[in-house]
Every structure is written in structure tokens, then in C-alpha cells.
TrEMBL record:
Protein name: Long-chain fatty acid transport protein
UniProt entry tagged with the keyword Signal: yes
Keywords carried by this UniProt record: Signal
Organism field: Flavobacterium proteolyticum
Signal sequence, start to end: 1-19
């Protein structure tokens, strides 16, 4: 147990140097950024369904599942994303690696307790546009960049009302910093090139809450029905905003020169909404053999707003996500064949993100695959996801991405009373 706590403390300490650039999506420019947490690696490999809960699988998508775990659990997961961004005639590649979650779950008789840290959303983009002014025969370049994220520190509990029904909740503290910069450059036939630079800073924080119900029952001697419901009420985050303006010159021989003193511009703080979300899921299967389920989520994303101002060509609409997925285990108690004990997972998901740009809804599709490698009571979960987000219509960007997900779930009886000392 001491060794596990040392490992946990070391990983938690490393969060201090956690990179903020964990997305490269231009769509992270809007609203709260790109939503990052989509479940543990085993759930993501099944299309993101949060219906499976048992004694060794740590389900962070529904807090009602915490009472199902029977072993003290330490879970950590990360994702490497390989993206290709396409427009009409151009393409760019990007790679990002980020931590998905760091969590601990503890069983206490009919209760289950969990706490941890995860990124809620991320901002990371660089958008460049070019134009020519015939009046003065000058070229203009506009570059927008942004980075940062909103992290989520959570603690939750679950109570098993009986063997079939559990109820749980999470209390979340959301915090983070998002920095954006806008530079417009006028290229004229001189050695000094005029630039205008605007830097914005948003310090975001606030509490949120979600609650869930988990129900399971035997349909017959073999089949079991699992059902899940999670409700996240609307929450308000405070964005403390600041802005700095500067007129700068760029010397093509000596680099950037700030020609005038920078000026701080008063900007109003904003109250930003995390929209209410409802998730329903159900599925059937045989314990330790197979499972197949479906899940649907509705989120009131029409209430989203941008950090500083609304964008003229972008609006928000209510969003929907549909997920299908499941797993198969050839023979969970096989002693002769290790791969017969491996969990094989697959799934599909479709999501209307709620973002509308130039009258085009931004949709996200993904096919998922994965395996769970048993190591005693613990699991090493590997997941693979192939997806597409956005479109090249109306001059927009289409993201084609491949995600490699790796998760570790350590299970043990940390607080077992020893019979012999």
C-alpha cells in the first residue's frame, strides 16, 4: 500500500508541470473549448458508454457505480492524438498527448467513494488568414492563437440501496486559465512592418455537480440488464478577463520591436454556463462473458457563450450524442490461454457538438476498438479510435484523427484487516 501511495503522490506532483497544449483543434476557439473527458479507457473503447459497472471496473461516467467496486482502485489514463486538418486544398498535421484522468476509488461497505483530477475542456489553436488591400498595395495577415484548459477536481460518493439499485453524486471544482492572442500584420515595402497585437487572459473557476442512478437485474439465469441515468444540472463558471493592446513593429533584420507602451484595456468579467446534460443508457449481457449496450445524451449547448464576445458567424444549438458498444471475453477463467482472458471491446459514437459555424453544424463521428489485459486483479486497457470532426464545406476545417488511449487500473484490498501479523 505504501508503494502505491508513493506512486500516486509522484504522479500528482507531476501535474504541476502538466502541459496546457493538449488540443490542436481550431474548434476549441469557441465556447468553453474542446470537451476532453470522455470516460476511462475501457468505456471509450466501447463508444463511450457508461453502463458497465462491477467489482473491478472503475466507471467515472456515472457516480452511482462507485458502490459497485469491491477493491480499492487507482486509475490513470492518457491519450495521444494524431490529427490531420483539411481545408479546400490544404492540410496540416498535429500530435498531442494529454492526461485523461487521475482517480482513486474506495469501497466502504454499501458505500463507494471516489476522488481525482481530470481536464474538463481544452483550448489550443492557431488560425491564420491573409488578404490584400488594393488601396495601399499592402498585404495583411491575421493570426489567432490560444492555449489553456479548464481542469476539474472532483469528489463523489455512491450508496447501494439494494443489490439492484445504486445512487451517487459528484461535486466538482472547475478551474483553469485560457490565454488568447490576436496579431494583425500589414506588410508594406519597408524594413519595419506594422503589427497590432491583442492579448486576452481568462481566469476561470466555479463549482458544478452531477448525480446518477444505476440499476441492474437478472433477466434469467444467464442474462443481466444494466441501466444508467446521469443528470448534470446547469452550472455557472466565473471568467475573470483581462486584455492588453500593443502596436508593434517587426524589423525584418532584428526581430520584433514594441514601438509604443502596451495598454491594458478594461474588460468585463463574464459568467459562463456549463449546460445541463442528461444521459440515458441500457444494455444486456452475461457476467464475465459479453455485454452490448446503447447510450444517448442531450445537452443544452444553446446556452453556451464565448469568453469575451459572441462570434458573428458562429452560434450554438442543443447537442445530442449517441453511443453503441460492448465487450466480449472468450473465457475469463482460462488457465492455459492468456488471450482467452483478455477483454475485447468495440463501439461507435455520433455527436452533434452543438457548434454551428456559417450555418454548418459541427458533427463528430468515431469508431472505437480496445482490449483489456488482465494483470492479476488489475487491468491495462488499450484503446484505439478513428474519427472525423467538422467539414470542409463553407471554408471550414475537417479534422481526421486517430487516438491511442492507454489506461491503468490498479485494484487491491488496501484496508483489509490482517488475520496474521
Amino acid at each position: 500500500m505504501i508503494k502505491k501511495l508513493i506512486v500516486f503522490a509522484s504522479i500528482l506532483f507531476s501535474i504541476v508541470s502538466w502541459s496546457q497544449e493538449n488540443t490542436a483543434s481550431p474548434y476549441s476557439y469557441y465556447g468553453l473549448g474542446e470537451i476532453k473527458f470522455k470516460g476511462t479507457e475501457d468505456a471509450r473503447s466501447m463508444g463511450g458508454i457508461g453502463i458497465v459497472a462491477d467489482s473491478i471496473h472503475f466507471n467515472l461516467l456515472n457516480p452511482a457505480s462507485y458502490s459497485k467496486i469491491k477493491f480499492s482502485t487507482f486509475a490513470i489514463g492518457s491519450t495521444s492524438t494524431f490529427s490531420t486538418f483539411e481545408t479546400n486544398g490544404n492540410s496540416e498535421k498535429a500530435k498531442r498527448t494529454n492526461l485523461n484522468y487521475l482517480a482513486v476509488g474506495l469501497p466502504i461497505k454499501k458505500f463507494g467513494v471516489s476522488f481525482g483530477l481530470m481536464p474538463y475542456s481544452a483550448v489550443g489553436y492557431k488560425i491564420e488568414s491573409n488578404s490584400h488591400n488594393d488601396a495601399d498595395n499592402s498585404d495583411r495577415t491575421k493570426i489567432s492563437t490560444g492555449n489553456g484548459n479548464i481542469n476539474r477536481l472532483f469528489i463523489g460518493s455512491s450508496y447501494a440501496i439494494n443489490k439492484k439499485l445504486s445512487f451517487g453524486f459528484n461535486i466538482n471544482y472547475n478551474f483553469g486559465v485560457v490565454e488568447t492572442e490576436f496579431i494583425e500584420t500589414i506588410y508594406a515595402p519597408v524594413e519595419l512592418q506594422l503589427r497590432t497585437r491583442e492579448r486576452n487572459n481568462s481566469n476561470i473557476n466555479g463549482f458544478s455537480f452531477n448525480t446518477g442512478v444505476y440499476y441492474s437485474r437478472n433477466l434469467n439465469q444467464k442474462l443481466k440488464l444494466n441501466s444508467s441515468f446521469v443528470y448534470s444540472p446547469e452550472a455557472t463558471l466565473v471568467s475573470e478577463n483581462s486584455r492588453n493592446i500593443a502596436t508593434i513593429f517587426y524589423n525584418i533584420y532584428g526581430g520584433e520591436i514594441i514601438s509604443l507602451p502596451t495598454q491594458d484595456i478594461p474588460v468585463e468579467d463574464q459568467k459562463m454556463k456549463i449546460p445541463a446534460k442528461y444521459t440515458f443508457g441500457s444494455g444486456i449481457g452475461m457476467d464475465k462473458k459479453w455485454f452490448l449496450g446503447a447510450e444517448i445524451s442531450f445537452q443544452e449547448n444553446s446556452k453556451l457563450r464565448n469568453r469575451f464576445k459572441d462570434i458573428s458567424n458562429a452560434t450554438f444549438e442543443n447537442s445530442t450524442r449517441i453511443s453503441l458498444g460492448g465487450y466480449f471475453v472468450p473465457k475469463h477463467d482460462s488457465f492455459s490461454n492468456y488471450f482467452s482472458r483478455v477483454i475485447y471491446r468495440a463501439g461507435f459514437r455520433y455527436e452533434n457538438t452543438g457548434l454551428v459555424i456559417r450555418n454548418e453544424s459541427i458533427n463528430d463521428y468515431g469508431m472505437t476498438f480496445g482490449i483489456g489485459l488482465p494483470v492479476g486483479l488489475s487491468k491495462i486497457n488499450l484503446g484505439f479510435e478513428i474519427g472525423k470532426k467538422g467539414t470542409t464545406s463553407q471554408g471550414l476545417v475537417q479534422e481526421n484523427y486517430f487516438n491511442l488511449n492507454i489506461g491503468l487500473s490498479l485494484n487491491d484490498l488496501w484496508f483489509r484487516k490482517r488475520e496474521i501479523n
